[in-house]
Write a structure and sequence with these properties.
Shape: globular
Distance between the termini: 88 Å
Protein name: Coatomer subunit gamma
Membrane topology: Peripheral membrane protein
Structural class: alpha+beta
GO biological process, one term: intra-Golgi vesicle-mediated transport
Number of strands: 8
Helix content: 55-70%
Radius of gyration: 36 Å
Subunit structure: Oligomeric complex.
Strand content: 5-15%
Number of helices: 37
Family: Belongs to the COPG family.
């Protein structure tokens, strides 16, 4: 690990006499390493190091001089008075040493601004037409960069650029054509009037596209392929525009040259991702490539076919893949499995064919990544296709009987605990799970204990057997396994669904990244107070998946899993600021406040209490280069509502959900909520706006069965004549409330 201060201290050796090229070269390498690692150099320290480095131009060592050029380019933007080296660079640029001239030009143009460019214009013109290709290329590339600073000066070099186009060196030709093209395009735009520019912008016919398409008929294969690749990568390219490029690539698929076949099938694979129908005509040629001696070509061919094939061709493709997969490496097998996974989602009715193929692959030898790809594919089929659930679970049970990967075994056991109890015959999975307790390592045994507990919690018929197995697990040699068995045994013995839902189904409801950060912070700041779990933000996933997570499979109708509102009640009661709000009467459905593709995805859930309403904002950061801290959502309620407090989300990392809350006090009598809009007007609602309260939020009543008394509806406090605009769903809710009220308050 390099320390910036130590490296800058070593840089004082630049001032020593005589200069030691070897040691100076080593220090310059360290400085460049720190700069490329993102280390911040202050202006003062960077300037001091830069000035010390200028003394190294006294040395004639070629390697040291070239390293100085690189350092000048990197430090040009952070140092002051960098123009001090202009004379030294100009001297090298016009000198006789060709090895110095090219790098000196690039470094000089990096530190030159618009005011200094005219001073070196004569030297740049000479360098562009220089006979040494390295010098000419450096001058042309630097000219392209200098156009951003001063186009008026660079456009005077067009004659020299055209002369360089006749050079024998292909790189000089390439750079000169690029420079001439940029100069001509900009010159054309400057000459066009405003009306002509508008016509140019809206024109659908592009002469550049016609040129690229004409290159498809070139005699050289390299030009043809580059033209086809350019057309395919054009944004918003239509099927008609793709057709000639696909036809050319189809011809390349039968080329005797492996490089051309590989380039063609690789490009067709990219086309198949966005335009699978455009590649359908190439299916026959792609099928012939499955038996290609080059395994890379064969893999790309089969994955392309899997993307473009129809449902009727799935059976035939699976047979072709079977004879092909055994001959390729694990790396290529993973690609094939990923393509099969995408095909499963595209044609779910073909899950049986693909499940059989995946199970055969699962029995073959292979590494961890290969096995994980297959397991993930089977799990996705189990979770998304009810018809394939039992077959998929059976294959996974067979796999964990001889699985050497702990991560995969624990993942499958978790799936068995989640999906197994919901199958018609859940008892058949108990043997596979308990075998893991007997035969596997500590991590797998602990996961098996958790899976057994889920079976006992959801199936009363299996509960006695599960309790016996958990008692055996209490004798395990590992602390984690014994603790889990003891904990689950005591919970299950209570035979209370609420306890099962809280401690077995739900698990840890807090955000794991948030808990990790909070625990780390707690260890850094020792305190006599115990760690408070309530300070950790709640995880967003259990809230919305709970309904599917804890379906009870018992036959007795009077026992139910906790409702979504009960879970919200428990989570909100765990927050100190919300403990005194009373019972939770209603939680709304999530409302999406932003578009899914925006930088920050936000949705809101409204929790209505007696005198308050809590707004829960579930936020997700979609920018991988930003870490947000203390995230809040600013609200602007009406005058009758008062924002009491805002609880921010501690941090919002990339793709990690976070929750922030806003507590609002309700007015004593809100007679304006839900009134109809003014006649003739329209209500507009932006994506970032949220309707604070509706009439439905103020309608609440207690269950007579639960409290022994029915309170009148809060909306009926005082007689008021009002008009409302109700949708069908809201009208049914209000009708139910009115009927219930009349039922219990109509005189006999």
């Amino acid at each position: 690990h390099l320390e910036k201060s130590a490296v800058l201290q070593e840089a004082r050796i630049f001032n020593e006499t005589p200069i030691n090229p070897r040691r100076c070269l080593h220090i310059l390498t360290k400085i460049l390493y720190l700069l490329n690692q993102g280390e911040h150099f202050g202006t003062t320290e960077a300037t001091e190091a830069f000035f010390a480095m200028t003394r190294l131009f006294q040395s004639n060592d070629q390697t040291l001089r070239r390293m100085c050029y690189l350092t000048i380019k990197e430090m040009a933007t952070i140092s002051e008075d960098v123009i001090i080296v202009t004379s030294s660079l100009t001297k090298d640029m016009t000198g006789k040493e060709d090895v110095y001239r090219g790098p000196a030009i690039r470094a000089l143009c990096r530190i030159t601004d618009g005011t200094m460019l005219q001073a070196i214009e004569r030297y740049m013109k000479q360098a562009i037409v220089d006979k040494v290709s390295g010098v000419s290329s450096s001058a042309l590339v630097s000219s392209l960069h200098m156009m951003k600073i001063s186009h008026d000066v660079v456009k005077r070099w067009v004659n020299e650029a055209q002369e360089a186009a006749s050079s024998d060196n292909i790189m000089v030709q390439c750079f000169s054509v690029c420079l001439c093209f940029e100069l001509c395009i900009l010159h054309l735009f400057f000459l066009l009037s405003n009306d002509a520019l508008c016509i140019f912008i809206t024109s659908h016919e592009s002469p550049l596209f016609d040129f690229i398409e004409s290159c498809l008929r070139n005699k050289h294969e390299m030009v043809i392929y580059e033209a086809a690749s350019a057309i395919i990568h054009l944004p918003n390219c239509t099927a008609r525009e793709l057709a000639p490029a696909v036809s050319v690539l189809q011809l390349f698929c039968s080329s005797p040259k492996p490089a051309l076949r590989y380039a063609a099938v690789r490009t067709l694979n990219k086309v198949a991702m966005k335009h699978p129908s455009a590649v359908t005509a190439c299916n026959l040629d792609l099928e012939n490539l499955i038996t290609d001696s080059n395994r890379s070509i064969a893999t790309l061919a089969i994955t392309t076919l899997l993307k473009t094939g129809s449902e009727s061709s799935v059976d035939r493709l699976m047979k072709q893949i079977s004879s092909f997969v055994s001959e390729i490496s694990d790396e290529f097998k993973v690609v094939v499995v990923q393509a099969i996974s995408a095909l499963c989602q595209k044609y779910p009715r073909k899950h049986s064919v693909m499940m059989t193929f995946l199970s055969n692959m699962l029995r073959d030898d292979g590494g961890f990544e290969y096995k994980r790809a297959i397991v993930d594919c089977i799990i996705s089929i189990v979770e998304e296709n009810p018809e394939g659930k039992e077959a998929g679970l059976a294959h996974l049970c067979e796999f964990i009987e001889d699985c050497e990967h702990t991560v995969l075994a624990t993942k499958i056991l978790h799936l068995l605990g989640k999906e197994g109890p919901r199958t018609p015959v859940p008892s058949k999975y108990i043997r596979f799970i308990f075998n893991r307790v007997v035969l596997e390592n500590e991590a797998v045994r602990a996961a098996a204990v958790s899976a057994l507990a889920k079976f006992g919690a959801q199936n009363e018929n299996l509960l006695p057997s599960i309790l016996v197995l958990l008692q055996r697990c209490m004798m395990d040699t590992d602390d984690e396994v014994r603790d889990r068995a003891t904990f689950y045994l005591n919970v299950l013995q209570q035979r209370q669904m609420a306890l099962n839902a809280t401690y077995i189904f739900n698990g840890l409801t807090v955000s794991v990244p948030g808990m990790e950060k909070a625990l780390h912070q707690y260890t850094l700041e020792p305190s006599e107070k115990p760690f408070d779990m309530k300070s950790i933000p709640l995880a967003m996933a259990p809230v919305f998946e709970q309904k599917a997570e804890i379906m009870f499979v018992a036959t007795k109708p009077e026992k139910f899993a906790p409702s979504r509102q009960d879970i919200f009640q428990e989570q909100l009661a765990a927050i100190p600021e919300f403990m005194d709000l009373g019972p939770l009467f209603k939680s709304s459905e999530p409302v999406q406040l932003t578009e899914a593709e925006t930088e920050y995805f936000v949705r809101c859930v409204k929790h209505v209490f007696t005198n308050h309403i809590v707004f829960q904002f579930d936020c997700t950061n979609t920018l991988n280069d930003q870490l947000l801290e203390k995230v809040t959502v600013q609200m602007e309620p009406s005058e009758s509502h008062e924002v009491l407090c805002c609880l921010p989300a501690p941090s919002l990392a990339y793709n990690q959900p976070g929750i922030c809350y806003t507590l609002v006090r309700l007015p004593d009598d809100d007679s304006t909520a839900g009134t109809n809009p003014q006649e003739g007007g329209e209500r507009s609602k932006n994506a970032s706006q949220l309707e604070l309260l509706t009439v439905g939020a103020n309608l609440w009543f207690f269950s007579k069965m639960k409290y022994g008394i029915l309170f009148p509806v809060k909306f009926f406090k005082g007689l008021k004549e009002m008009e409302f605009c109700l949708n069908t769903r809201t009208f049914r809710t209000y009708l139910f409330v009115v009927n219930l009220y009349l039922t219990h308050h109509t005189p006999a």
